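Q: Start with the shorter request: fold the first protein.
A: Done. Sequence, then structure:
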Amino acid sequence: MESRHEVEIARMVRVLRSYGVLTRERLCQLCNGEHMPVNIKIALEEAIQSGRIVALGDELVELPPERAA
């Protein structure tokens, strides 16, 4: 199923591929989330639920090993 947040999720994956582990807040900032904070947070939760991004506790996120390369 295609997500309506695919653009935001793809941007997050690119950022995490460059930076590695980030806080959720910093990832949202790097993805220009200050302009649409609700949308970017919803997209992040969707990416975590789908396995495209991995939550490391409540604050940190990273890519799963197969996406990090």
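Q: Next, the second protein, separately.
A: Sequence, then structure:
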Amino acid sequence: MAQGFKDLGPVDAWKTPKETWKTVMVPEEDPLGKVYPDIGLNSHTFKAGKTYTVPAEVAAYILDRVKVFNRSCVRLLQPNADMKSIREVSVGSANAPEASLVDGATI
């Protein structure tokens, strides 16, 4: 270890200075118009339509979860199949059927 530095160990995000905290909001509804699901982090639950002031690391986690969930909702609506992923999944399977396109409009 470098001289002059001490091992700080893990830092509890909830004990960081309040000046560094961020305000985030969990959306009320998802891109499909349904109630947004709760976001859980250990013993903490962040509910739809609520605004929270949380440590920066927790805010980054919440915003990432919102982004990933929204992307998954939008992907359900996209009519183009991801052929690259379909081919990658079917390769190596002994009885893999020929990849076929799925029309998202019929779902």
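Q: Describe the second briefly.
A: The first strand starts at residue 22 and ends at 25. The CA atoms of residues 38 and 47 lie 5 Å apart.
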